[in-house]
Amino acid sequence: MPASSHAAVVMPGANEPLRIDSFATPALAPGAALLRTLYSEVCGTDVHLHHGRLGVPFPIIPGHVSVGVIEATGGALSDIEGNAIKEGDVVTFLDVHETCNNCYYCLVARQPTRCPRRKVYGITYSARDGLLGGWAEAIWMKPGVKMVKLPPELEPETFIGGGCGLVTALHAVDMAELRLGDSVAVLGVGPVGQSCVAFASLSGADEVVAIGAPAARLQFAERMGATATLDLDVPERDRLEGVRRLTGGRGADVVIEASGAPEAVRQALDLVRDGGRVVVCGQYTDNGPVEIHPHWQLNRKHVEVKGCWGSRYDHFHRAVALTARYGGRKPWRDMVSARFTLDRAGEALRAVEERTAIKAVITPNPALV
Ligand SMILES: [Zn+2]
Ligand SMILES: [Zn+2]
Question: Has this prediction a pTM greater than 0.70?
């Protein structure tokens, strides 16, 4: 029997201090469930939320990608393969919910990540709607939320170490349409960039060049599978030369921008070879415009540029399976460099903002810190 109320971190508004409120346990309709939170991640998006850079219905309970234990269900539940989801199971869930499958973007354009009706746990739900964010003792799984059981070989820490960046990176690497032996440059060595490096190397890329800073994150990218790294301390001209040297003078077959810096999009267009492909998945916040040269960088270069927004259930489902299979070879688990209890959520946000942690996680359980 779940407790009658649960504590959760509330972000009351832009730049306001976080606080902890108590929320009533929701009544569980058929198809609903209550998760006891093990971990919820803190990512760059949470920092942007706190800076008021995304229009969200404050107050909110932050925390989109999370792992927890089923504490109660509103009747029988199963995953997409028909396997029962029961009390005590360790699950994660797709934070995106209510994609309608009934609008132009869902049905005609077939771009469900642009569905205007989609909701996201920890971002687009207000705290007034209840326990719909992960920085909490418990999370309310509304009916229809897609849950996946973690296979026994997948430690919760490994999946949450990858976090939302894992799912975003898988989508981006899918869009990159890598071929065996391709050369790939990844701009940015935060959580998304690290997983892009891991997935590119698992996809059979030949050269995987990680470009970013600081040095410790570049070293981590080598553990993820980078064959070469280039520090942002190196002048841009020399980084371009470095990539060309590694790619027969041509530039990378594929460049993935995962840094968040508008400048990196322009650089990606320089680093890619003629007729290559650029995937932009780092610009989740409006960090401003950048000037590009359409003749040299697009038209004459015959380059393909793709923007990558959000992720679908298939990315999420495969991300769980891939971390289960490759978690021993790719150190997602070690990306978790800081753990915080609910009362220290403000410190967790600062750690991510000041980049002292690659990945910070929040847990309501002091034994897991
Ligand atoms: Zn829709
Ligand atoms: Zn995120």
Answer: yes
